[in-house]
Amino acid sequence: MFRLSSEGSLHTPQSILSRLQTERLFAERRNQTVIRKFRYQFKSERTFSSSWTASRAPSKMNPLLSTLLFSLLLLLTLRIQELIEACSCAPAHPQQQICDSALVIRAKISSEKVIAPSEDPLHTHKMIQYEIKQIKMFKGFEKLKDVQFVFTPFDSSLCGVKLEANNKKQYLLTGQILDDGKVLIHLCNYIEPWDDLTFSQKKSLNQRYQMGCGCKISTCYMVPCSITAPNECLWTDWLIERKLYGHQAKHYACIKRSDGTCSWYRGGPPLEKEFVDISEP
């Protein structure tokens, strides 16, 4: 039996069968190639996914180590919160604090009273009102004659000052005078029990400290440390004694001379005899 193809060629059953087998063989090869490609692609994707998952997945941690890390993070967070909320003041020599204050008085604290916040922009926080008995005024005559009350923030984080209100202990108080005439004191002011002041500090309150308000007192923390201007005094307590309020802060004042230069002066003998030039520690 013979069959005529559409192209007009003659094919026997054997040739047709051979062609079908050939086409079937090519089809099977194509399918195998597709399957191999699919398997390779699937394997590659699975390998990538596994490696990505392994790299991203958190590793198991020792329970003790996990607890320690958590505790450390908690303590660090609390410490940062304390630093944010705490009052911080730049170190300043007592003379500088006296010069920067509008009011300097010696007084006893008679009583204290907590004042609630008000709508007044100057009193938006809870305050402590200290009733005082003024003993002597060293600075502030031109604005106030007699001070009866001083105010300080209630919270220590806002630099509030805690004083003994027993009408016995005397304090040196320095502070600022607000627009409404009220006196504000805080931890960054120079506030000390009167009995803790040295003889030189008490004498310097009358005139010497204010004689040196045109001088600049610079703190030395490390060497080299040298003056940068003729009217500058170097404060070396930290460098020599490893504490800020050491011998120099307690016994010396930085005084301006007639030629415009400034030098340390120790209270006691006349000015011209006791100048001490400390330009290099």
UniProtKB/TrEMBL annotation:
The keyword Zinc-finger does not apply. PROSITE patterns: NTR, TIMP. The keyword Metal-binding applies. InterPro entries: Netrin_domain, TIMP, TIMP-like_OB-fold, TIMP_C, TIMP_CS. Disulfide bonds join C87-C159, C89-C188, C99-C213, C215-C262, C220-C225, C233-C254. GO terms for cellular component: extracellular matrix; extracellular space. Pfam families: TIMP. It comes from the Eukaryota. Zn(2+) binds at C87. Residues 87-213 form the NTR domain. Belongs to the protease inhibitor I35 (TIMP) family. This is Metalloproteinase inhibitor 4. It comes from Pogona vitticeps. The gene is TIMP4.
